[in-house]
Amino acid sequence: MVLKMSRMKYAPLLVFQLVLMVLYFVFVRYGDGEDVGVKGFEDTHVMIFIGFGFLMTFLKKYCYSALGFNWLLAALVIQWALLCQSFYHMKDNVIQVTKKSLLEADIMSATVLITFGALLGVASGVQLLFIAVVETAVACLNIWLVADVFKAADVGGSIAIHSFGAYFGLGVSLALRSKPSTEAPATNGNTVPAVDLNGPSYISDVTAMIGSIFLWIYWPSFNSGLTKTDAEYQRAVINTYLSLAAATVTTFIISSAVSKYHGRLDMVHIQNSTLAGGVAVGSVCNMHIGPGGAIAVGIGAGLLSVLGYRYLTPKLTKLGVLDTCGVNNLHGMPGLYSGLLSVLFAALATKEKYGAPELGAVFDAMKDDGRTASNQALYQFIALVVTFVLSLVSGFFTGLLSKLPIFESLKENEKYDDEINWELP
Amino acid sequence: MVLKMSRMKYAPLLVFQLVLMVLYFVFVRYGDGEDVGVKGFEDTHVMIFIGFGFLMTFLKKYCYSALGFNWLLAALVIQWALLCQSFYHMKDNVIQVTKKSLLEADIMSATVLITFGALLGVASGVQLLFIAVVETAVACLNIWLVADVFKAADVGGSIAIHSFGAYFGLGVSLALRSKPSTEAPATNGNTVPAVDLNGPSYISDVTAMIGSIFLWIYWPSFNSGLTKTDAEYQRAVINTYLSLAAATVTTFIISSAVSKYHGRLDMVHIQNSTLAGGVAVGSVCNMHIGPGGAIAVGIGAGLLSVLGYRYLTPKLTKLGVLDTCGVNNLHGMPGLYSGLLSVLFAALATKEKYGAPELGAVFDAMKDDGRTASNQALYQFIALVVTFVLSLVSGFFTGLLSKLPIFESLKENEKYDDEINWELP
Amino acid sequence: MVLKMSRMKYAPLLVFQLVLMVLYFVFVRYGDGEDVGVKGFEDTHVMIFIGFGFLMTFLKKYCYSALGFNWLLAALVIQWALLCQSFYHMKDNVIQVTKKSLLEADIMSATVLITFGALLGVASGVQLLFIAVVETAVACLNIWLVADVFKAADVGGSIAIHSFGAYFGLGVSLALRSKPSTEAPATNGNTVPAVDLNGPSYISDVTAMIGSIFLWIYWPSFNSGLTKTDAEYQRAVINTYLSLAAATVTTFIISSAVSKYHGRLDMVHIQNSTLAGGVAVGSVCNMHIGPGGAIAVGIGAGLLSVLGYRYLTPKLTKLGVLDTCGVNNLHGMPGLYSGLLSVLFAALATKEKYGAPELGAVFDAMKDDGRTASNQALYQFIALVVTFVLSLVSGFFTGLLSKLPIFESLKENEKYDDEINWELP
C-alpha cells in the first residue's frame, strides 16, 4: 500500500501536464518571426538549468535532488508561466508564442527556483510542485501589476523576479516553521543526521561553483534581454558587467574581514554574494547610472550580501525561518536595494529627461503618458511595496496549505537527504 | 616489445591525420562569407564536446576515457566528416568550407558519439577509432541519400544522425556479442571487476548531469541550426523547447511510477529520457505541428524512453547486446518515432500546403518538384527504413572487422576501466 | 594581533577598488551603440571565468583557491585593464566604454590568468593581487607597442596575450626561485606535504576538464572576436577550429608515444596541449593560411606542447623555475611559434597583396601606409622580441618586489593548499 502510494505520488503532476497540453492545443499559436532576433535567450537558458541547478549542489548529500528538482520545476514552470504571463495579453483568445515568450518564461521560472533555494532540503518534491504552480500564477499577476498597471521600470527583474521569489520563499519558510526556538539546536537522535547533512563537502562546493560562475557570466545577458534599443542594451550589459565585477572584489574583501577563522574566506559568500551585484543593478541597469555608478552599486551589493550571510541569516535560523541557500542575502535584500535605486533614478530623471531623451525612454510612462519624474518615482516605490507584501503573504498562505498531509511533508531525519527521492549507487 | 607496441598503437592514427592534412591542402578552400550568420554553431559545439563528453562520465572509473575518447573521436571526425559530406557537393574538385560546414561537421560527429555511447567501456581506443572512420563515411553516404536523393525532411537529424548512430552502435554491439547467454551473469574472477565497474558513483552521476543539462539547453539550437527562414527557425526553437520540457516532466513521473524502490527516481532516466523530447521532435520541429503538438510529442518521448530503459535494455543485455548508455532509448527509438511523425506530417501536408505556403517550404520537393503529399510521406518512410537497415548492417560488419587482432579488443577484466588507457593519480 | 592582520590583509585591495570607482566616475562614459554587434564577448567571458578557473582545479587540494583567485583576479583586472588599455586612446580626457571594450578587457585578463597558472599554489593571494595590478599595466603598454606603434598583426593575441602572460609568469617564477638546486628534491618534514599536494586526484582531473573543454570550444570565438570583416571573421573561425582539432588528435598520439607507462595517456597533456592549437594559430588565424595550413599548424602545436611538458618542464623545475600548469608549453612556446608564423606570412604577403586584397587588409600598415611585406615581417618580429623581453624582465622585477614581507610569501608547507585561505568543510 505504501509502495503503491509512493509510486503514484506524481499522478497529479501527470494530470497537470496533460491539462497544460490541452490548454496549449486550444489557446497557443506560433507568433510571427519579428522577435527572432531577441538577445539573451540561450544565455538565460544556461542560467536557469545549469546556473541555478549547480549552485544548489553545495549540500553534500542533496546534489541529485538539487539538480533534479531544479530541472523538473523549471521544465514545468516554463510551460505554465508562458500561459499565465500571456493571459494578460491575449488577442482574440489566442496566445502568440515567439522566441521572446520563451525568454520571458525562462525568466519567470527563476522566481520559483529562488524560492526553491530558500526551501532546499526541507520541502518534499510534492510540496515543491504545489508551491511552484501557485507561485507562478501569483508572480505573473504581480509582474502584470508592476509592468502594466504601475508601469514601473524593472528591466532586469530585480523587483518582480528576485525580490518576489525570495520573499515568497521566506513566506513559505515562515509557515513551515514548526517549533521555533527549541527545534534548531536540538540534538536528539532524529535531528542529528539532518543537521549533519546541512553542509557542504569539498567536492560539492566545487560543483556549486559551476552554477555560480555561469550565473555570473550570463547575468549581463539576463539583465539586458528585454531592452528595446541598442543604446539601452549596451548600457545594461556594461552596468551589469561592472557591478558584478565590483561586487566580486568586495565580497572577497568583506568575507575575509568578517571571518571567524583568521581572515579565511567563506565559500558561501564567494558562491553567492558575488552575484548580488547582478541583482542590485537589475532594475536600473538600462538607465544612465554611469559606469562609476555601476561600480558603486556593486560595492554596496557585495557588502550588503556578505553582512547578511554573516549576521542576519543565523538570526533568522534561530527564529526557525530556514533559508538554506540564503536567498534573502542574494536575491531578497539586493532586490529591494535595486528597487530603491530605481526610485532614486526615476526621481533624478527630471532634468535628464529633456537633455538625454534616451533616459526618458526607459520610463515608458514618462515618454508616452507625460508622467512626471516624481510620479514615476512614486510608482516605482509602489511596485516595490506591492511586490514585497504580495510575495510574503501569498508565500505564507501557500506554505500553510503545503503542510496538508497530501503534500507529504518531510520528517526531520529525511531533510537534506537524496536517499528518500533517489536510487543511490 | 609489448611496451613498444603499446606506444605505437596510435601510429595509424598519425598517418590518417597526415593524410587528412594533405587532402585539405589539395581540395579545401575558404568559402565566401555568406554563411557567416549561421545560427547555432557555438551551441552545437558545446553539445558535442561538453554535452556528450560529460554525459558519458556516469561510470565510476571511466570518466577519463569518456571525456578523452569523446574529444579525440569528435576532433578526428569533424575533420573527416567535412570532407565526406562535401564530397557529394564539390564544384570543380574544390570543397568550399564555410562556418555552416563546421556546423554540419559537428552535427555529423554526434552520430559517432552516439555509437560510442552504446560501446562505452567495452571497445578499446583503437577499435573506436576504426569504427569512427568507417561510420563517418557510411553515415555521410546515408545523409546524402536521405537529403539529396529521397529529399526527405529531417532538419534536426533524428533520422540521419540519431537513428543512424544508435543502430550502427547496436549493430557493432551485436557483432561484439561474444558468448550470448552465459557470459553476462558469469561470476568468475575475471568478470567480477568489470561488472562491478559498470555503474556510477555519487559524484560521477553529478558530473554526468553537466553533460545532460547542456545537451538539453542547447537542443533548440541544434534542431534549428539548419533552418532557412526566420519563421521556420522560430517554429523549430519553440517546438524543441516545449517538447523537451514536456519530456522532462513525463520522465520524472514515469521513472517514479515504474521504480523498483518505493517510487524512487532513477538517475539513468533523468540523465537520458529528458533528452528524448529533443530527438523525438527533431525531424518535424520546423513543421506546423503546433505548440500543443510539440508537448504531446514530448510526453510520448519521455514515456517511450523510460519504458525502454526499464524493460527493454535489460532484455537486450541478457541477449548479450550491450548498450552501455542505452542509446536505443535516447536516440534509437525516439529517432524512429520522429521519423514516423515526419511521415504523418508529410501526409497531412496536402491541404495545408496551399493554405500555408510556409509549411510547403519545409518539403523542398513539394515546392520545387511538385511532389504530392502522399509521395513525400512515402519518401520520408523510405528514408527512415534505408537509414535503419544501412546503419544496422554496416554497423554489424564494422563490428566484425573490429574484432581483428590488430584492433586490440579488451579482455573482460579491462572493461569499464580507465586503468589501461591512462596514467591515474 | 595576528588575527587582526589576517582579517585586514585585503584592505589595500579595498582602497584600490575605491580608487577604481573614482577613476570611473571621472573618466569613463558610455560609448555609442555601434559596437553592440561585436562577436564573441559572451563566449570569451565563459573562457575567462569557467575555462581558466576550472582548468586550474586539477590540483587535489587547491580547487577553491584556483576557482576563487581566478575569479577575484579577473574581476579586478577587467576593471583595471579597461582603464589601462583605453588610456592610450582617450579623447578629450574621456574613455568611451562599449561592448567591445568589455571584450578587450576580458582578453587582457587572460594575460594575468596565464601568469597565475605558472604560480598556481606557490604565490599567496596578496602576492597575486600585487602581481596582477602591475602586470596589467605593463601588458597594456606592450599591447599598445605591438598594435599601435609596430602595427603588428596579432588578432588572436598569441604574441601580446599568451606569450606575454607566460613569460611574465616565468619571470616571476625565476625571481621566486629560493634555493635553486637543493630545495626541490628536499625531503625534510616541511616540504613533504607541499610536494604531496602538487598533483591531481581522480575527481580534480575531471573538473579540470570542464575548464579545458570550454576553452577549446570557444577558442574560435576568442581568436575571431576582434576581426573586422565577415571574410576575415570566417577565416579566423575555420582556421582556429581546424588547428585545434588537429592539435587534439596529435596530442593523444604523442602523449601515448612518449609515455613512461606502456603507452598510457597523460591527463596533463590532454588538458593542455589540445589547446596549444588555438594559441599557435592565433596571430595568423585571420590570414590566408589555408585550411590545410591550419591543420599543419595544429599538428606542430600538439607536438611542440607535449614534448615541452614531457622533457622541458622537468628540467626547468630542477632549476627551481616552477611552472605549475606548464604555461610555457601551452601559452609560451606556442605563442612564440605563432609569432614566428606571423613573420612568415607577412613576408609571403607580397605577391598575394595585390592578387587578394583581403590578405593585405589584415596588415593595416601595408594597406594604409604602404609598408612593404618584408618591412611588415620585420615589425612582426620586433613585436615578438619586445614582448618576450619586456614580459620576462618586468615579470622578474615584479617577482622580486613580491618577495617583500608585506606581500606574505607562503612557507613551503603552505603551498598547493586551500587550508590557509579557506574555511574548509
Please specify the SSE layout and strand pairing.
The structure is a homotrimer of 425-residue chains.
Chain A: H1 2-7, H2 11-27, E1 28-30, H3 41-55, H4 63-87, E2 95-97, H5 99-119, H6 125-149, H7 158-176, H8 180-183, H9 191-197, H10 202-224, H11 230-257, H12 267-280, H13 291-318, H14 327-347, H15 349-355, H16 357-362, H17 364-368, H18 373-401
Parallel strand pairs in A: 1-2
InterPro entries (chains A, B, C): Ammonium/urea_transptr, NH4_transpt_AmtB-like_dom, RhesusRHD
Main location (chains A, B, C): membrane
Subcellular location (chains A, B, C): Membrane
Overview of the molecule:
Three copies of one chain form a homotrimer. The first copy, chain A, has 425 residues and is mainly α. Chain A has 18 helices and two strands. In chain A, α3 runs parallel beside α5 (99-119). Chain A starts with a helix and ends in a 24-residue tail after the last helix. Chains in contact: A-B, A-C, B-C. Chains A, B, C: This is Ammonium transporter AmtB-like domain-containing protein.
Tell me briefly what this model is.
Chains A, B, C: It is found in: Membrane. Chains A, B, C: InterPro entries: Ammonium/urea_transptr, NH4_transpt_AmtB-like_dom, RhesusRHD. The structure is a homotrimer of 425-residue chains. Chain A is mostly helical and 425 residues long.
